[in-house]
Amino acid sequence: MIEKLVLTGAGGRLGSYLREPLSKMAEELVSTDLVDDIGTLYAGETYVKADLANYDEVFAALEGADMVVHFGAIVDEAPFEELLGPNFVGAYNVWEAAYQHGAKRVVYASSIHAVGMHAKNECIDTEVAHRPDSFYGLAKCFAEDLGRMYWDKRGLESVHLRILSCAQVTSARALGSWLSYDDLIQLVTRAVDTPTVGFSVVYGVSNNDRSPVDNNKAAFLGYRPKDNAEQFADAILAKEPPADSTDPAQMCHGGPFSAVDLGESGLAQMNIVDDRKKN
Which residues form a coiled coil (predicted)? Predict the structure, then answer.
């Protein structure tokens, strides 16, 4: 069992599903976010309010950490100036504080948006070149390169989870991109408990028949998703409008983020259900 884990973004939708399983993997789980309260704490869990853009607050929250599961960020496209603190500087603050405290590993919530402008008919693997679809995706590229540099120069391990779409299936795109919450938990668990990872990238996607990405080069992590979005296909496709091959949202891996102007919300074009876990 790990002595101390830190989870950033614990107040978010995905964080709400990770808190309980992570609390069972560590003697102490420190959950952090910007909200005042995240509800009832699990056994061994404490909550620390911390601003990712403030190095001193991040440094204090990570004291004694063996590993960091870094899910905190603005989770949408926005003007660069809004993303700079939490998404860019925040990533640096987490890696630097983790290194200074002697942590073993950072597990990072990266995103398909780091490679979102690749064409959808390309089944991309984990070594495909960065091709961000937004400032949000650019921040993911920055953190992936940051993680590689800290591994190469300082020996701090990291696993970068390129999550496709971890939300209820409400569109044809999600038939390929869906990551169920159960598979999310397995993905993070494998990223934490695999003995050695160096610098690694893995796609966060369930075992979908229509998955557009290839995880073969990350097989050593032991991530074997169980769920399949095909169960939703008939209902989703019955109400889907005709396909448009001129629409980047349909033709690129990044979906709506590939089509919006830089700085404009991608989530506003999506039907994301806020079904965060209540504890």
Answer: none
pLDDT digits over 97-111, tens only?
A: 999 999 999 999 999
- Provide the whole-model pTM: 0.97
Give the Cα separation of 70 and 126 in Å (integer).
20
- Here the tokens at position 216 are 């073969």
Would you please indicate which residues are annotated as catalytic (active-site) residues? Answer: 136
Q: Which helix (H) or strand (E) holds 251?
A: helix 248-251
**Pairing between β-strand 2-8 and β-strand 124-125 as defined by DSSP bridges:** unpaired
Backbone torsions φ then ψ of 7, nearest 5 degrees = -115, 115
Query: Please, are residues 106 and 223 in contact by the beta-carbon 8 Å criterion?
Result: no
Q: d(Cα 7, Cα 52) in Å, to the nearest integer?
A: 12
In sequence order, what are the residues at sequence separation of 6 or more whose Cβ sits closer than 8 angstroms to the Cβ of residue 199? 147, 148, 151, 152, 157, 158, 160
User: What are the backbone angles phi and psi of residue 169, rounded to the nearest 5°?
Assistant: -75, 110
Cα diameter, the chain: 54
In whole angstroms, give the CA distance from residue 231 to residue 46: 38
**Cβ neighbours, 10 Å, residue 151:** 18
Amino acid identity of 179? L
Complete domains list, the chain, with CATH: 2-269 (3.40.50.720)
| CA–CA gap between residue 261 and residue 77 (Å, rounded) | 9
Cβ neighbours of residue 172 closer than 8 Å, sequence gap 6 or more: 236, 237, 240
